[in-house]
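Hi R.,

Here's the chain you asked about this morning:
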Amino acid sequence: MRTILTLLLVASLLPAAGFRAGIGRIKVTPEKPMWLAGYAARTHPSEGVLHDLWAKALALEDGKGGKAVIVTIDVLGLPRSISDAVAARVAKQYGLERSRLLLNCAHTHTGPVIRPNLILMYDLDPEQGKLLVEYAKTLEDKLVNVVGAALGDLAPAKLSTGHGKASFAINRRQQTPKGVIIGLNPNGPTDPDVPVLKIETSDGKLKAVLFGYSCHNTTLTGEHYVFSGDYAGFAQIDVEKAHPGATAMFMQLCGADQNPNPRGKIEHAEQHGRELAGAVDGVLSGSMKPVEGNIRTAFVSIDLAFKPHTREQFVEELNSKDKYHVRRAQAMLRAYDEGRPPRKMSYPVQAIRLGKGYTVLGLGGEVVVGYALRAKKEFPKENLFVAGYSGEVAGYIPTLEVLKGGGYEPELSHVYYGNPGPFTDEVEETIFTAIHQVMARVGVK
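And the predicted structure, written out as tokens:
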């Protein structure tokens, strides 16, 4: 009995087992020319590759066996059909429940169209339509496989966090006498924060670095037809060149109303990538805060209500001279005729907390910067990594202020996404109720 008590006492005095981390990566560059996502002005498929697109996975396990996997993908955004399928297969194959898998898209506009997202935007022939179906299935398979690769690579690791800054994002909601346009608004809100998670092996070798920034990944505008990860792709390349053998992973944060400035040329994308990589390297070379403790996760799917609409308004929209409005009207009328006019959008909110004090908050859709700024104010003691474009991307997510201001993000964008129209005024509070719910579940007050 005395021996047992002695062993128990010794065990209680030993430090808790630390984290284990694993990395997976897989190329997702299309093998054939495909229609590029994000700009309605494009008129033909891709014309080559500037640099490859990747899906990368970071698997983490705490001392009690609790796991979480973060996957970053160099594409515009995932539709729910893919994210749900990936989550279901990961749960079946690897026993990882939905709250423990976070999928984030870099939102490059020089990546392939991911069907059925924004499908009304493109003039596709049957051959391109077939390629989109094939690519979506291939992407789903690769995302499942990259999760498995990361889980299979788990090994003892040390985690630490820090924050840098980048300044090339500018608020794009420019006020004019005719309303808000996409332009330059130097007085609008931005978030220069570059959060960094450093993952080292047990002997101190850099294994991976996860970082993010709030800025639309649109340095390369509609006249560009080559596959690339835009500034985020260049940033990852630069970090990996500076740290051979390490994997760099970029998460798109809340950049829906932010544009890179300047933009339009490949040199601009390289410039912004260097700045972002430099901010990351500055954090890595400085003093960082260790992350210790257990992994806690939470996930909820809520409904965001659209403003009331009628069949008659879409009958009228059929007379529009704009082909995208006509396509949206046709889609809405089909939905009405089938007895399923869309009144709400399913919306994912999740949190992954590593130890005490560090939380990755994942929000679906194209989230404007106001959500990150408000979340940091409402959880001032928590080290927050607030990411939009997570889980699924089915439209822009405005704050009430942006919604009231009108313009592309809260109004016109819904035409291209095939949504009936703007959200109700309750959109922001509905989301923050869910944010507080998941944060409470992971122990953040």
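Residues 310 and 336 are 9 Å apart (CA to CA).

Let me know if you need anything else.
M.
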